[in-house]
């Protein structure tokens, strides 16, 4: 704001006082005038918006304190600085004016040099406040932009890492997108459930979906002759295949050590990678955890991963129909999967099918089936 172009609104019920104040200020500022509190409240909403208000205290119908109160109650005018101008020169009157929030208090009769000096000071202060606000607004916008860029980089990095595992097994196709969708569907349904509500906040759900693609990152450590074997694995080969859960955990743990501070999505990704092959009945791997000892994120991922594996073509099997996969998942309620997670799957099964078709391979898209 250029002080030479600053706009000052003078509010006084006396035309003589308005004339005197206007004459003192109009050589340096744009001056507007109002002869009552009601008129002032209308004028202040029209252009040019005042940078400073000189407000008489003693006015009929609506005094200066009431006008000031209404200015402060309105988001459009609350930040305009106000100087009270009044013939009441008692200390109590001055204290009251400053206490309610006026930036200054000038007693009549007006002393021109004092008036000009105080007006100039308050306009300089407003200029400084406006500059700081603009700087803060800019910094907030810039911070939001950089955070958005960081999130995009983070998401791209996650998918790049996840695709390392996917590239090793080219038949998995859109597996990452599908499992993200399944996990979100389960999490959003369970977010109001008493057993899950404390964990599945909107923020946690976003982290869960962001982390889900890293569930099989450990497969990069599995030899091709085992990972891509078209037939059934031998017991020895199966033991090697199962190590991908720990390999994934270890890889993410190493990534955690390389950053200066803990990253929430890596903590969740580590749980998912390590425990998504655990079973509700304790017969899973790698730790044999059972029931609620299995992290919630891993329980949701377990069902999502198995469902997608069932409906997807693999080197060792053709894809199952949605009906067949549904039957197997429901049969695993209370043994393979958390019962409440299976119940969420049953409720959201139509959404599972939609996700599978939307991000499916050609053979999967032909499997649409509506249960019931």
UniProtKB/TrEMBL annotation:
Keywords: Phosphoprotein
Residues modified to 4-aspartylphosphate: 56
HD-GYP domain span: 150-361
GO biological process: phosphorelay signal transduction system
Pfam families: HD_5 (PF13487), Response_reg (PF00072)
Molecular function as annotated in GO: phosphoric diester hydrolase activity
Domain annotation Response regulatory: ranges: 7-123
Superkingdom of origin: Bacteria
Entry protein name: Response regulator receiver modulated metal dependent phosphohydrolase
Organism name: Allochromatium vinosum (strain ATCC 17899 / DSM 180 / NBRC 103801 / NCIMB 10441 / D) (Chromatium vinosum)
Lineage: Bacteria, Pseudomonadati, Pseudomonadota, Gammaproteobacteria, Chromatiales
């Amino acid at each position: 704001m250029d002080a030479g172009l600053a706009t000052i609104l003078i509010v006084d019920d006396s035309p003589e006082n308005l004339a005197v104040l206007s004459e003192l200020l109009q050589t340096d500022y744009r001056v507007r005038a109002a002869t009552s509190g009601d008129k002032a409240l209308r004028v202040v909403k029209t252009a040019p918006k005042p940078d400073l208000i000189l407000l008489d205290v003693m006015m009929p119908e609506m005094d200066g304190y009431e006008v000031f109160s209404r200015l402060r109650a309105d988001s459009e005018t609350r930040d305009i600085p106000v100087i009270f101008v009044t013939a009441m020169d008692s200390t109590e009157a001055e204290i009251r004016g400053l206490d309610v929030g006026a930036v200054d208090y000038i007693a009549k009769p007006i002393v021109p040099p004092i008036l000009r000096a105080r007006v100039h000071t308050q306009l300089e202060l407003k200029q400084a406040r406006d500059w700081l606000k603009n700087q803060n607004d800019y910094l907030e916008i810039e911070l939001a932009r950089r955070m958005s860029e960081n999130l995009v980089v983070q998401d791209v990095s996650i998918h790049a890492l996840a695709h390392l595992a996917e590239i090793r097994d080219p038949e998995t196709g859109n597996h990452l997108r599908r499992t993200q969708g399944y996990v979100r569907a389960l999490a959003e349904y369970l977010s109001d459930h008493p057993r899950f509500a404390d964990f599945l906040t909107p923020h946690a759900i976003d982290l869960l979906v962001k982390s889900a693609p890293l569930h099989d990152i450990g497969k990069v450590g599995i030899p091709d002759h085992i990972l891509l074997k078209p037939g059934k694995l031998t017991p020895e080969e199966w033991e090697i295949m199962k190590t991908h859960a720990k390999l994934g955990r270890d890889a993410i743990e190493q990534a955690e050590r390389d950053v200066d501070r803990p990253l929430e999505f890596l903590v969740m990704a580590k749980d998912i990678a390590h425990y998504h092959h655990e079973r509700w009945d304790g017969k899973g791997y790698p730790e044999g955890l059972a029931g609620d000892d299995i992290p919630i994120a891993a329980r949701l991922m377990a069902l999502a991963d198995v469902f997608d594996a069932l409906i997807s073509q693999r080197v060792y099997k053709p894809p199952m129909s949605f009906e067949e996969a549904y039957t197997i998942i429901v049969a695993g309620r209370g043994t393979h999967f958390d019962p409440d997670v299976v119940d969420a799957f049953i409720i959201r099964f139509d959404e599972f099918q939609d996700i599978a078709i939307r991000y499916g391979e050609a053979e999967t898209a032909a499997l649409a089936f509506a249960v019931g």
